[in-house]
Amino acid sequence: MKKLIRYFKESYSELVHKVSWTPVKELQSLAITVMVASLIFAVVVLAMDLSFENIMKVVYRYLAR
């Protein structure tokens, strides 16, 4: 049990004193960058999906003749 308590105390001490935390402004900037990149990626995937859907409709119409 003592080992477990010591482990938690050391973990807490490391988090408080040894870890360097990223400043809030930088975190906000990075979060916005990730959101914009995700949005762009989603739009590209949507465009590809709609394009392939239309291509497949044309192919199926041609094959159904």
Overview in brief:
Its main location: membrane. By secondary structure, the chain is mainly α.
**Structural class based on helices, strands and sheet pairing:** mainly alpha
- Strand tally is 0
Are there runs of 5+ residues with pLDDT below 50, and where? none
Number of helices: 2
Subcellular location: Membrane
Protein name: Preprotein translocase subunit SecE
Keywords: Membrane, Protein transport, Translocation, Transmembrane, Transmembrane helix, Transport
InterPro entries: SecE_bac (IPR005807), SecE_sf (IPR038379), Translocase_SecE/Sec61-g (IPR001901)
Q: How would you sum up this structure, described in words?
A:
It is found in: Membrane. It comes from Alistipes inops. InterPro entries: SecE_bac, SecE_sf, Translocase_SecE/Sec61-g. The chain crosses the membrane at residues 30-52. With 65 residues, the protein is mainly α. 88% of the residues lie in helices and 0% in strands. The protein contains 2 helices and no strands.
Write the layout of secondary structure elements.
Elements: H1 2-18, H2 24-63
Subcellular location: Membrane
Organism: Alistipes inops
Protein name: Preprotein translocase subunit SecE
Key attributes of the depicted protein:
mainly alpha, 65 residues, 88% helix, single chain
